[in-house]
Design brief:
41% of the residues lie in helices and 14% in strands. It is of the alpha/beta class and 165 residues long.
Length: 165
């Protein structure tokens, strides 16, 4: 009981100071002293349809680049947590250094979104697919659901290694 009261007070204090994360209520506020470093987010290119995806994967293949496709939605809690915790990690950025980052925002869940999900046998986000430099999906390395930064960075490296055989 006392721990919950203390946590509630910290969340309220963080919210009053401009914090927006229930998991890290004081993160990004100046209450901890000094200035806070801004998080570096991954720069995704958005794709909407299967045709968009095929065009981007083909272009990447022509330039000898692997591709990561992130299925994302605003209403997906695990997507938000990965965006905040996994995709801001330096090890993840390093692992994805030469990878084309694509994101299919399926928030509207319209017919085009459903067709793209169905093309890969997916029901919804979060899901992350990798394509090798020849444009083929590395199916053995799909990510379904949340994955923490350290595990994800290792997973990316393994996917890229598997795709280069």
């Amino acid at each position: 009981g006392l721990a919950m009261l203390f946590y509630g007070a910290i969340v309220m204090l963080g919210a009053a100071a401009g914090g927006r994360d229930l998991f890290q209520p004081l993160h990004g506020t100046s209450l901890l002293g000094g200035s806070t470093a801004t998080e570096k987010h991954l720069a995704f290119k958005t794709v909407k349809s299967l045709a968009d995806l095929q065009r981007e994967v083909e272009n990447a293949s022509n330039n000898n680049r692997a591709v990561m496709l992130d299925f994302y939605a605003d209403w997906c809690v695990d997507c938000k947590i990965m965006e905040k915790r996994t995709f801001t990690d330096a090890k993840v950025h390093k692992a994805l250094n030469n990878v084309l980052l694509l994101q299919a925002d399926v928030t509207p869940n319209d017919e085009t979104d459903q067709a793209l999900l169905k093309a890969f046998g997916l029901f919804g986000p979060p899901a992350i697919l990798f394509f090798d430099t020849d444009g083929n999906e590395i199916k053995s390395h799909r990510v379904i659901g949340f994955m923490a930064a350290d595990e994800f960075a290792s997973h990316v490296n393994a996917a890229l290694k598997a795709g280069s055989r």
